[in-house]
Design brief:
Number of strands: 7
Strand order of the largest sheet: 4-3-2-1-5-6-7
Distance between the termini: 34 Å
Order of helices and strands: EHEHEHEHEHEHEHH
Shape: globular
Radius of gyration: 16 Å
Largest sheet: 7 strands, parallel
Number of helices: 8
Helix content: 40-55%
Length: 193
């Protein structure tokens, strides 16, 4: 399985997050999976790539070419394959197209945006791939609380809860990702409109 891992690129993240994401990367390879990620060499992106590399796993990085031209962030220099599209939109599309599942690790604005886009596409029945949030140290507790509040206020249908999985336990995340894909419902069941 090709697992897309979203996560922070910041080099100033607490080492505890990096260690857990590094171990997650190692475990991916031990379970026979490869990595698709945003191509960054720092933060949690760098950590997951380091973990996959430590186990000699396959790594596909996808990072816009302006990151290199404008020195936006460090680019991972040991990907088996590195795609360099022109735009962020193309980057996300390539990551989606080349992945069988998605794992959201702690991150900033870009990671939030990636999560919500891939979740929206699943709600609109554009894909049926599993989406898991790796909730390290409760990082996403407030996000999950916000989602549940929006459900209670009828801004989001409760069925959206069935479209993703949240855990701080890597074993449970892998069990979810490796489970048979549930048949996707029609858009009307998932979304009012």
């Amino acid at each position: 399985m090709k697992i897309c891992v979203y996560g922070a690129a910041s080099p100033t993240i607490d080492d505890n997050f990096k260690k857990k994401v590094y171990e997650f990367g190692r475990e991916m390879v031990k379970r026979g999976h490869s990595l698709v990620f945003g191509g960054g060499g720092n933060g949690l992106m760098g950590a997951v790539a380091d973990g996959v590399k430590a186990e000699n796993g396959y790594i596909l990085g996808v990072i816009p070419d302006f990151f290199e031209d404008e020195y936006v962030e460090k680019i991972c220099d040991f990907c088996n394959e590195l795609m360099m599209p022109e735009t962020m939109r193309e980057r996300k599309q390539l990551m989606e197209d080349n992945s069988d599942a998605f794992v959201v690790t702690p991150g900033g604005i870009g990671t939030y945006e990636e999560f919500f886009e891939i979740l929206t596409l699943k709600q609109l029945c554009r894909h049926s791939k599993p989406i898991a949030i790796y909730n390290i140290d409760g990082y996403y507790d407030e996000l999950i609380s916000t989602m549940q509040s929006a459900i209670k206020k009828n801004f989001i249908k409760e069925s959206v809860n069935d479209l993703y999985f949240v855990s701080d336990d890597p074993d449970k995340i892998f069990e979810y990702l490796q489970a048979p894909v549930k048949e996707i419902k029609n858009v009307k069941e998932l979304k009012d409109g």
